[in-house]
Structure formats: C-alpha cells, structure tokens
Amino acid sequence: MSKVPVVSPDDCVAALSRFGYAVVRQKGSHARMRAIGRNPVTVPIHKGKPLKRGTLASILRTAEISVEEFLSALGR
Question: Which of 53, 58, 63, 75 is least buried, going by the fewest C-beta atoms within 10 A?
Fold first, then answer.
C-alpha cells in the first residue's frame, strides 16, 4: 500500500471528480461532494494549505478509493 500523499485541496477535488464526484455545495471553507453510488465526502478548502495526510486518508476511506487509485487519478 502506498503512503498517502500531500496534495492541495484543488488537486483533491479534481481527482475526486474523475471518480464521478461533483461539488454540490460549499459553505465557508468546506466543499461537500457527492457521486451516484458512493458516500458523500467533505473536502476542506483552506487556501494556501495542503490537506493533512490523515484528512485525505479519511476522505479516501469514506469514498472507498485506494491510495493507488487516487494517485492514478492525480496522474502520479
């Protein structure tokens, strides 16, 4: 299993969109994303700060996406 990467919130949203997720609403600094047949996830959008590894791991666990699949969607 690969190590969870450090990515920007924008990169995370872009990668999740490749799995069918779309931003359905944003309140303050948090974007709520949904996809048909998958659990909804919330991505913190704090400008200038990358997502913490634990936060990204939680998002991936909720979305049932492996680290390898996520890295592939990022193009890494």
Answer: 75
Structure tokens at 53: 């590894």
Give the C-alpha separation, 19 to 69, whole Å.
10
How far apart CA 4 and CA 48 sit, in angstroms, is 19
Phi, psi (deg, nearest 5) at residue 33: -120, 140
The residue written with tokens 């492996």 in the block is 66
Residue 33 lies in a domain: yes
Is 0.70 topped by the overall pTM?
Answer: yes
Give the amino acid at 18. Answer: R
Q: pLDDT tens digit string along 21-64?
A: 999 999 899 999 999 999 999 999 998 899 999 999 999 999 99
| 2 is a domain residue | no
